[in-house]
Amino acid sequence: MATTQDSGRSYHLQCTGPALETAEAHSAQEHITLFGSCFCPFVQRVWITLEYLGIDYAYYEVDPYKKPAELLELSPKGLVPALRLNNHHPPNALNESTIIMDYLEELANGDTRRSSHTVESLFPPPSDPYARALIRLQADCASRSLVPAFYRYLQAQDEAKQVEGATAFVEAIKALVALFERAEREGYTSYGLWNEGGSLSYADVMAMPWLFRATNVLKHYRGFVMPEGERFQAYMQRLVAHPAVRRTCSTEQLYLDSYERYAFNRPNTSQVANAINSGAPLP
Ligand SMILES: N[C@@H](CCC(=O)N[C@@H](CS)C(=O)NCC(=O)O)C(=O)O
């Protein structure tokens, strides 16, 4: 049964569960500081990437709605995630989750400060540009369809709009799955968790935070049930159980509390929520 009463809960300001352990293990100063917020799916993309690629970093929790000066210095709209690159004087800065993911992926391929010795990558090798493009197609689908569909559904208040939102969200998941299946049909089975034995891909990371929040936030507030089918269920299990992903997940209550404001479409919830309400592109 979906929840119908706004109890006025606010977003959390500290991770819980496995994410808290990870944040605590990454509290010492490093060359790279990730400015993050525990509930934020865009931050989770970057956090998973850092964990997966074995890059040394510090995690630093900020409240992006309070817009502290130290965040605004890195991210013009005061959005998380942001990176501070401390080995430059003054430090360099990067914002935008996808740009940061690209940066980290390139950094990992030639960086000597990596803590891990195995060279991981979220992409097939540069020698296979077509395989890389297939992963980018999937990632593009996640960013342009899945992500806005998630917020439109969660913010929809009247029943007809919620039904519409659910349908559009399921369609977005199906479009993503169709692209996974296409890559599989074309013989690309070693990149992406869609295939058993495949490695975590850029597209998996791009989609994961919203697929995950569908299993807790959308389930709780909209009574959403994820698409059935053994193959999809197995994919979801591999995704949430992947160690790099798992280490960035808080416990369910944190997400339920943090997303109540979206579920009741409270005024000025966030720049993302405002964009959805006004039909503007996401920030
Ligand atoms: N396009 C940005 C979006 C980031 C974003 O919207 N982050 C949210 C937190 S989940 C934020 O910082 N919100 C602050 C605000 O709305 O003022 C990205 O991909 O990094």
Describe this structure in words.
This protein is an alpha+beta fold. The protein folds into two domains: 17-110, Glutaredoxin, CATH 3.40.30; 129-278, Glutathione S-transferase Yfyf (Class Pi), Chain A, domain 2 (Up-down Bundle), CATH 1.20.1050.10. The protein is built from twelve helices and four strands; from the N terminus they run αβαβαββααααααααα. The chain has a four-stranded mixed sheet with strand order 2-1-3-4. Strand 3 and strand 4 form a beta hairpin. Helix 5 packs antiparallel against helix 6. The chain is globular. It starts with 16 loop residues before the first helix and ends in a 5-residue tail after the last helix.
Short note summarizing the structure:
The protein is an alpha+beta fold and 283 residues long.
What's the number of helices?
12
As a whole number of angstroms, the C-alpha radius of gyration is 18 Å
Which second-level CATH architecture of the largest domain applies? Up-down Bundle
Number of strands: 4
Query: Low-confidence parts, pLDDT < 50 over ≥5 residues?
Result: none
Strand order of the largest sheet: 2-1-3-4
Helix-and-strand structural type = alpha+beta
* Secondary-structure element series: HEHEHEEHHHHHHHHH
Beta-strand content bin: 5-15%
CATH top level class name of the largest domain: Mainly Alpha
Question: Could you say which overall geometry the principal axes of the C-alpha atoms support?
Answer: globular
Mean pLDDT: 95
Overall tally of structural domains: 2
CATH topology of the largest domain: Glutathione S-transferase Yfyf (Class Pi), Chain A, domain 2
- Biggest beta-sheet profile: 4 strands, mixed
| Ligands and ions found | glutathione
Spatial separation of the terminal alpha carbons: 32 Å
